Structures are given as C-alpha cells and as structure tokens.
Amino acid sequence: EDQVTQSPEALRLQEGESSSLNCSYTVSGLRGLFWYRQDPGKGPEFLFTLYSAGEEKEKERLKATLTKKESFLHITAPKPEDSATYLCAVQAGIPGAGSYQLTFGKGTKLSVIP
Amino acid sequence: NAGVTQTPKFQVLKTGQSMTLQCAQDMNHEYMSWYRQDPGMGLRLIHYSVGAGITDQGEVPNGYNVSRSTTEDFPLRLLSAAPSQTSVYFCASSYSGAPYEQYFGPGTRLTVT
Fold first, then answer.
1. How many A-B residue pairs are in contact by the CB < 8 A criterion?
2. Chain B touched by A91 (CB under 8 Å)
3. Which of A34, A101, A106 lies closest to B42 in CB terms?
4. A92 neighbors A31 (Cβ within 8 angstroms)
5. CA distance A78 to chain B (A)
C-alpha cells in the first residue's frame, strides 16, 4: 500500500525566515511526486511535479527536491501570502488504466507572520 | 478556459436524500476523478474515469455512483445520503498517459443532517 507522510503538520514562520517542509513516501514504482498549495475554502493548486531522484524544480520562493524516499519543499524568505496548506501526492504503479491515482499526504499548514 | 468547474458550492441534505454533484472541464482531459477531503484524513479517491464510458472505483466508493457519457462531464451521485458523507468534495482532471498533474475544481461542501 502506498503511503505518504508529511511533516510537520503545522509550521509558523516569521516573514523572511526560510524553512523546509518534508514529504516521505513508500510506494512501489514511483511515477511522479506532486506538490500542491491549498488555500482555505479552495481546491488544491498545482505547484510542481518531480519524476526522479535528484530532480529539483523552482518557482518564485519555492524549491522542490526529490530523493528516493522523500521530497522537500524549501521556502526561501517567505511572505504572508505564502500562508497555505501544502499537500504532497504520489502517483505510482504500472502505466495503464487506474494508475493515475494520486495518494495524498495530510498536508502541512504553513503560517507566515508579518 | 474555465478549467474545472463544480456545482453547487454548498449543499445541505437530510439523511436518505439523493443528489448529484456536477463536475465539468474544458481542457479535453481524458482522466477525471472525485476526491473527498475530511479533517485529519487528507484527500481520498472516490471514483475515477479514464475516458467516456469508462469508470472505476477508488479508495472509498461506497454510497457513491458515477457515469461518464462525455469527455467534459463527470457527475457524482449520492444514492442515499448519510451523515458520514459530510465532507468537501473535489473533482480533478488531467491528461492520461505520463504522470501529468491533476487540476482541481473549487469544491462542494456537503453537510448531511
């Protein structure tokens, strides 16, 4: 059974205080790892896809990295508008019908204080 | 492009009532899916479809029904609502094939009393 664990559950940062969110996973045949941002009352918004260990992607103050067991979402000099819940999801298995299923972690709620 | 749209945004049902949550996408995506999100549980897959006429069950399918008659629409039917189905429901879509990112709708908040 695919498992995704995110830590910490909640994180409070001062504006400008850099940190990292963790997503550890146990899957058979990782095909892709996804990061989403979710604001209260909204649907998840896609941020990044990582496909293989060693890969990195960046967008503004966010940088996602991937190893064989975990992914990190690094937030550099965060601003209050970065406050949201960040979700990690994995897609695994053999290509074919039904293998597009995403297994989600429970998320990390980030609060950035001015 | 409207992306993924869902209606209604909010709904209150009494136990035993039935209803349909609507989902539509205008991106010509083959893959569509329904998730529910509950506090402390994360997003869980209910049903999915890899194309018109093809549907399958996800992790938590009991009490829900789906059909896919067109590429654009993927409605979710609650046959006889129960308080345990109180949740926020999200529809998502993506291209099939490679692990493409899934795009989510704004959600439907359902309360069953």
1. 59
2. yes
3. A106
4. yes
5. 25
Please tell me the distance from the alpha carbon of residue A90 to that of residue A21, in angstroms, as a whole number: 16
- Over the stretch B8-40, which tens digit does the pLDDT of each residue have? 999 999 999 999 999 999 999 999 999 999 988
The CA distance from A101 to the nearest CA of chain B, in Å, is 8
Token output for A77: 């000099």
Backbone angles phi, psi at B21, to 5 degrees: -90, 130
Cβ neighbours for A84, distance < 8 A, ≥ 6 positions apart = A37, A38, A39, A109, A110
> What is the pLDDT at residue A56?
97
The minimum CA-CA distance between A13 and chain B, rounded to whole Å, is 22
CA dihedral over A79, A106, B98, B1, signed as positive or negative: negative
Q: Which residues sit opposite B91 in a β-bridge?
A: B34
pLDDT tens, residue by residue, B39-87: 888 899 999 999 999 999 999 999 999 999 999 999 999 999 999 999 9
